[in-house]
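Training component of the fellowship. As part of building independent skills, the fellow (R.M.) carried out the full modelling exercise for a liganded target. The chosen ligand was glutamic acid. The inputs are recorded below so that the supervisory panel can assess the work.
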Amino acid sequence: MTPAELSPAEAVNEFFDEAAELIRLKDEFYEVLKTSYREISVQVPIRMDDGSERVFRGYRVQHNGARGPYKGGVRYHSQADLNEVRALASLMTWKCALMDIPFGGAKGGVMVDPLGMSPREVEAITRRYTLAISYLLGVQRDIPAPDVNTNAQTMAWMMDAYSGRYGYTPAIVTGKPVDLGGAPGREQATGRGVVYVLESAAKRSGMDLGSATVAIQGFGNVGSWAARDLADLDVKVVAVSDVNGGIYRDAGLDVRVLVETVQGGRSVVDLAGTDGIDAISNEELLTCRCDVLIPAALGEVLHNENAGDVQASIVVEAANHPTTPEGDKILNERGIQVIPDVLANGGGVTGSYFEWAMNIQQFRWKEDRFNEELRDVMSRSFDQTAAFAEGRGVPMRRAAFAIGIERVARAARLRGYV
Ligand code: GLU
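Fellow's submitted model of the complex:
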């Protein structure tokens, strides 16, 4: 697992410091931009199916709201402690600013491993948690969305719990089922955005994606949609993984079969041994032979012990905070292009912005329009970041943070925070 380096919040603040120094951010901004505006920790007590009572811990961190209402997902994970949620809230601030959408950054989490829990238990956690943090939420205040181990159904329960207290409020969460006001295209948006960004990167560097090989760690919502869109572009996906492990096939995997397998409730690992498919571990996937590596699962998977062995020439960070600062340094020194999380996975929150705007206007876009607008935002953000990085001779992460910080600092100044 992760070697002990910096905590997630320290790591994000290190990325912040490097970018802030580059743009010579004035001292008076540091405190307000590096700390959270508000952090809440709540009890989430529920009755389990066996009749026992358990109390989980939930958090919502609102990092910075200078540019608009707080926005960010909610994750259910045993490691979703306050430090991690704080780090991820800060990433949301820079991500929303970089995408130039009118939101600040937030994140939520409940420290629970929902795998193996019944849907009723997960629903009970969701409703309790939502009501506990509901005082901080609002269509113009803070709008949650899915993240690790949460999905459209979770958002439906959150919307229902909130609406039960405050009246019908579809715009209180994004990433809802389409039947409840979700936007057609939102579910695919994060994975699709990853592919749009990769296309922009290939175009800029002259790389022929058609002959490239891709490895994807994680086959959840983000990884599986990225794989499907890559397959549609005839790009070869050679490795994928899920919580049970990974698979590799030199000649490329059949993404349709992977999707059917997972939709049938099985693991991608079940395909190992068939059709020339080898079993590999999640760890091995990160250093397997490929041109493009897409970590699309958990955080801190690329670090000082394995970054030196990565064989890809491009890393596209579909997960949040998949690379530690030490790992990042090694990848940079080795000349591996890292497209950072705040840029690469920004399609998710951008799609959320479209959904929120549609809910407020009570007008639904066609999916084609959604995808067209998403592509515009992703390619514009990529080009701005790449131009900044090239102009200043810095890695894309520093450029992405620098652009985000400049925008938030300007808003903070105009509003009189500093
Ligand atoms: N959880 C996603 C992220 O980390 C989406 C957040 C949102 O849509 O608010 O970007």
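The panel noted the following from the submitted structure. The two ends are 40 Å apart (CA to CA). The longest strand covers residues 53-64.
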